[in-house]
Design goal:
178 residues; alpha/beta; Nucleotidyltransferase, domain 5; 5-stranded mixed beta sheet; 5 helices; 5 strands; 23% strand; nucleic acid binding
Length: 178
C-alpha cells in the first residue's frame, strides 16, 4: 500500500522525469512464433530448429513519464545476478547525475527480487542520494516496465521471424525505435 498511497506525492516531490522503474527481463533465441494459422480442424505446424536456444537477459529503466522509452538498456548472455545488477545500477546512476538536473533527486521503483536488495544497493542509494521503493510482492501490474518488456519482446520476435534478423540485431533496432 505504501506504493499506491505514495505515488501521487512522489510525482510532485520528484517529478515524473525523476521517477524510474527498473527491472530485468529475458528472451530465448529459440522463441519466435507468437501465433500461427491453419485450416479449421487441422493442427498448426511451425518450422523450428531443435535445441533450447540462447538466453539473452536485459536490464533497463523507464521513466514515469516515458514508460516505453528504455533508459540505459543492457543486454547480455545468461542470467542476471546481484553483481551484474549492481554494476548496471551504478552505471545508470552515474549517467543520470552527469546528464540531468543534479539538484533534483531520483526515486527508483523496483520489484522485490533479492538481487535488488542488500547493503551494496543501500550504499549506492546513499552515495547518489536516491530513494529506492520496492513494489509489493507479486505485483508486476504496478510496474510499467513490465508492459514495455512485453512490447519489446513481441517486436523483436516479429522482426526475427519476418525480417531475417538475429536476436541481437533485432534488440538493437527495437531499443532504438522505442
Amino acid at each position: 500500500m505504501l506504493y499506491l498511497n505514495g505515488l501521487p506525492q512522489w510525482k510532485q516531490q520528484y517529478g515524473e522525469d525523476h521517477i524510474l522503474y527498473i527491472d530485468e527481463s529475458g528472451i530465448n533465441t529459440n522463441e519466435t512464433a507468437e501465433y500461427g494459422w491453419s485450416p479449421k480442424g487441422q493442427r498448426c505446424h511451425a518450422f523450428k530448429s531443435g535445441g533450447h536456444g540462447t538466453r539473452l537477459s536485459m536490464i533497463s529503466a523507464v521513466r514515469s513519464n516515458a514508460p516505453f522509452k528504455f533508459t540505459q538498456p543492457l543486454v547480455f548472455h545468461g542470467s542476471c545476478d546481484r553483481n551484474i545488477f549492481v554494476c548496471w545500477l551504478e552505471y545508470l546512476l552515474q549517467d543520470l547525475k552527469q546528464k540531468d538536473d543534479q539538484t533534483k533527486s531520483y526515486l527508483l521503483i523496483l520489484d522485490n527480487a533479492s538481487i535488488h536488495k542488500g547493503r551494496v544497493i543501500d550504499d549506492l542509494a546513499a552515495r547518489y542520494q536516491i530513494r529506492i521503493v520496492y513494489l509489493p510482492a507479486y505485483s508486476p501490474d504496478l510496474n510499467p516496465i513490465e508492459r514495455a518488456w512485453s512490447v519489446l519482446k513481441s517486436k523483436v520476435r516479429h522482426m526475427v521471424a519476418q525480417n531475417n534478423k538475429t536476436f541481437q540485431e533485432a534488440l538493437d533496432i527495437v531499443f532504438k525505435m522505442m
